[in-house]
Write a structure and sequence with these properties.
alpha/beta, binds oxalic acid, 2 domains, five-stranded parallel β-sheet, 309 residues, binds NADPH dihydro-nicotinamide-adenine-dinucleotide phosphate, Rossmann fold
């Protein structure tokens, strides 16, 4: 018997169970802590996998992250040959395109400024800068970064993107590697971070990086909280080097009640909701991957464990 085990958010789990019953009725589906016979568990989808999965589920064939990121996994503690697959499925991509577009437009059209003015009952118009004169740059040219850029292109923003290896993206000036990051930052007025959290990207949004952006630039951060130096952002906003920020991810999460981001007039804060995997499309991608695995085909969203993403 080949069984599927789910260990994450219970509400979405109930939807996964309903979808599995329709789309894969022959595969027993369990929601943690009910594992069924542990010997039968071949596929595990988890936000946080249980400890010691090697001994607990000796016949496990694939570990799926229920999110698009996998930095919450301790890769070194997982059985070395176990494929780890993330869910960069159409639902989570669409959500991020919406969020990043909303955030870039909010900063482009001075929304944080107008929210401040509204609170002060102050009617004051500022110059409207056309999108064609606002340079937007995206850190990360992965599944999410590319989808976001494709949508932003429709507004006419001059676009740039940065990745580890070189890419070509239609209508986007592409930069690659640490050596080319300064040039990308120097031309970017709205910076969007969509990088995975790795040893190389931890703390990347720091004072030195902010200084390389032009004065008055702004930030959208929807990657991972530990990429951002919280104090450096406050300093850059308070001294006026940066003009605003839309922040979706923080470290820690949730943010403590007394953290200055809650009330900062130049920060729009959301509680890690930029996007979420959607059960319907996530289950389709999981089942497609199981079929691929059984047919010996490459898996979609397979994590390169040596790169850490
Ligand atoms: P991908 O793995 O598809 O893409 C990652 C991109 O980052 C790639 O272009 C990669 O370069 C680049 N990159 C990685 N390391 C470096 C580095 N050291 N220097 C330069 N570029 C680097 O990831 P996704 O686009 O699917 O997702 C990105 C992240 O978004 C997730 O890992 C997750 O943390 C976050 N996320 C946040 C959500 C939220 O709600 N806030 C929701 C979903 C995801 P290359 O192309 O050369 O490999
Ligand atoms: C994800 C997330 O990685 O929600 O999917 O951040």
């Amino acid at each position: 018997m080949m069984a599927f085990l789910y260990k994450a958010d219970a509400v979405r789990g109930a939807e996964w169970a309903r979808l599995f019953a329709v789309k894969a009725p022959d595969m027993p589906f369990h929601i943690w802590p009910d594992t069924g016979d542990a010997e039968d568990v071949r596929y595990l989808a988890a936000w946080l996998p249980p400890a010691d999965i090697e001994n607990r589920f000796p016949r496990l064939e694939i570990l799926f992250s229920t999110g698009a990121g996998i930095d919450q996994f301790d890769l070194a503690a997982l059985p070395p040959g176990l494929p780890v697959v993330r869910l960069a499925e159409p639902g989570v991509v669409a959500g991020m395109v919406e969020y990043a577009t909303m955030a870039v437009l909010a900063l482009h059209r001075d929304l944080p400024v107008y929210i401040r003015q509204q609170r002060e009952a102050r009617w004051a118009a500022h110059r409207v800068i056309p999108a064609t004169q606002r340079r937007v740059g995206v850190l990360g040219l992965g599944v999410l970064g590319r989808a976001v850029l494709e949508r932003l292109r429709a507004f006419g923003f001059p676009l740039a993107g940065w990745s580890r290896t070189r890419h070509e993206v239609d209508g986007v000036t592409c930069y690659a590697g640490d050596d080319e990051l300064p040039a990308m930052l120097a031309r970017t007025e709205i910076l969007v971070c969509l990088l995975p959290l790795t040893a190389q990207t931890r703390g990347i949004l720091d004072a030195a990086l902010f200084r390389q952006l032009p004065r008055g630039a702004s930030l959208v951060h929807a990657g991972r909280g530990a990429q951002l130096d919280h104090q450096a952002l406050l300093d850059a906003l308070d001294e006026g080097w940066l003009s605003g920020a839309v922040i979706d991810v923080t470290d820690p999460e949730p943010l403590p009640g007394n953290h200055p981001y809650w009330t900062h007039p130049k920060i729009l804060l959301t509680p890690h909701v930029a996007s979420m995997t959607q059960p319907e499309t996530a289950v389709e991608q999981v089942l497609d991957n199981i079929r691929r695995h059984q047919a010996g085909l490459p898996l979609v969203g397979l994590v390169d464990r040596s790169r850490g993403y």
